[in-house]
């Protein structure tokens, strides 16, 4: 499974700035919604006006906001002499080309189309920056992708914030936390299964929280132990989750804690998305080692000299 983050997106654009500079574009147009992110990244690097495809098609007047001087003096999008339309990802482009063909032919004639990530080598694209095949997922859609419906999710640290030490008393303060936990990542697609190390005795209030926040799911699997102390003594959080993840068809596990994510991957040889580190850990040894090494960045960044040197090295390894 291929995964790309906002950081990957920004670095890819920076590495390809020459392609954008050589196009002499005086307007960058993003395809709403996800195409707007790379469009603004490109526009900011080139100091070039940016608008949405809807604004280009309707030819709305530009609104002047702020004092920063932007290259060119366009009043309307269709005044641009060279236009770049930006899409974040591309497969068939059916809807994209349907929309572009609605533009006046004269506008189409001075327009290039770029896909940042493309699954195919399409002759219709002016260019693309990286070809990545399926299955693939991006940071900006990972919690809203149909993949969620075939995935297993941890609870604390993913769907909601982790409890503070003082809240984790296995008593009244913990019950108060479960009922009022701050939401974190709330998928807009039904989850196949939630697998949590929360104790079975907290099922009723956990289900109440999920209903309150509109989280749809197929099954809720909880740890059937008498106390948090016993759970802590056994220390089998990762193996408990891995047992469920391994036994039936799941495409991905969403885990917050890094060490548990690594262990779940090791036990199942299946991909795990680590929310805290924002990395995908898969079953390929080299990829897993690279991701694990990259994850060290957050553990050493408070050591000024060592952190700076090692982070620089890891950035090169990640490319």
Question: Could you tell me the number of beta strands?
Answer: 13
Shape: elongated
CATH topology tier name of the largest domain: Rossmann fold
Q: Give the overall pLDDT as a whole number.
A: 88
Q: H/E element string?
A: EHHEHEHEHHEEEEHEHEHHEHEEHHH
Helix content: 25-40%
| CATH architecture title of the largest domain | 3-Layer(aba) Sandwich
Strand order within the widest sheet?
10-9-8-11-12-13
Overall CATH class of the largest domain: Alpha Beta
Brief account:
The protein has 14 helices and 13 strands.
How would you characterize the overall build of this protein?
With 319 residues, the protein is an alpha/beta fold. The protein has three domains: 2-137, Rossmann fold (3-Layer(aba) Sandwich); 146-283, Rossmann fold; 285-319, no CATH class. 38% of the residues lie in helices and 20% in strands. The strands form three sheets. The chain has a six-stranded mixed sheet. Strands 3-2-4-5-6 form a five-stranded parallel sheet. It has a two-stranded parallel ribbon with strand order 1-7. Helix 7 (172-180) links the parallel strand 8 (151-153) and strand 9 (191-199). The protein is elongated, with a radius of gyration of 23 Å.
SSE layout and pairing:
Blueprint: E1 2-4, H1 6-15, H2 17-22, E2 27-30, H3 36-46, E3 50-52, H4 53-58, E4 83-90, H5 94-100, H6 105-108, E5 111-118, E6 127-131, E7 136-138, E8 151-153, H7 172-180, E9 191-199, H8 203-212, E10 217-223, H9 228-234, H10 237-247, E11 252-255, H11 258-268, E12 272-274, E13 279-281, H12 285-295, H13 297-300, H14 304-318
Parallel strand pairs: 1-7, 2-3, 2-4, 4-5, 5-6, 8-9, 8-11, 9-10, 11-12
Antiparallel strand pairs: 12-13
């Amino acid at each position: 499974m291929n995964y790309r983050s906002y950081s990957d997106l920004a670095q890819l654009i920076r590495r390809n700035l020459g392609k954008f500079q050589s196009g002499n574009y005086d307007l960058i147009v993003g395809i709403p919604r996800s195409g707007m992110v790379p469009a603004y990244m490109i526009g900011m690097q080139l100091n070039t006006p940016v608008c949405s495809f809807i604004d280009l098609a309707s030819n709305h007047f530009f609104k002047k906001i702020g004092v920063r001087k932007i290259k060119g003096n366009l009043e309307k999008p269709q005044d641009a002499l060279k236009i770049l339309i930006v899409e974040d990802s591309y497969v068939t482009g059916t809807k994209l080309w349907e929309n572009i063909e609605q533009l006046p032919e004269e506008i189409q004639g001075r327009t290039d189309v770029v896909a940042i990530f493309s699954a195919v080598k399409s002759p219709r694209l002016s260019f693309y920056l990286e070809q990545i095949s399926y299955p693939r997922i991006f940071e900006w859609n990972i919690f809203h992708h149909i993949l969620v419906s075939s995935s297993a999710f941890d609870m604390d640290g993913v769907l909601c914030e982790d409890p503070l030490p003082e809240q984790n008393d296995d008593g009244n303060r913990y019950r108060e936390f479960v009922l009022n936990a701050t939401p974190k990542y709330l998928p807009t697609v039904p989850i196949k299964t939630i697998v949590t190390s929360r104790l079975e005795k907290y099922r009723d209030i956990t289900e109440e929280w999920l209903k309150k926040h509109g989280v749809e799911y197929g099954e809720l699997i909880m740890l059937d132990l008498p106390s948090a102390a016993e759970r802590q003594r056994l220390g089998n959080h990762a193996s408990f989750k891995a047992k469920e993840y391994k036994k039936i068809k799941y495409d991905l596990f969403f885990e917050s804690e890094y060490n548990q994510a690594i262990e779940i991957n090791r036990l199942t040889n299946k991909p795990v998305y680590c929310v805290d580190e924002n990395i995908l850990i898969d079953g390929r040894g080299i990829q897993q080692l690279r991701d694990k090494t990259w994850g060290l960045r957050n553990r050493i960044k408070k050591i000024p000299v060592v952190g700076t040197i090692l982070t620089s090295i890891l950035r090169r390894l990640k490319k």
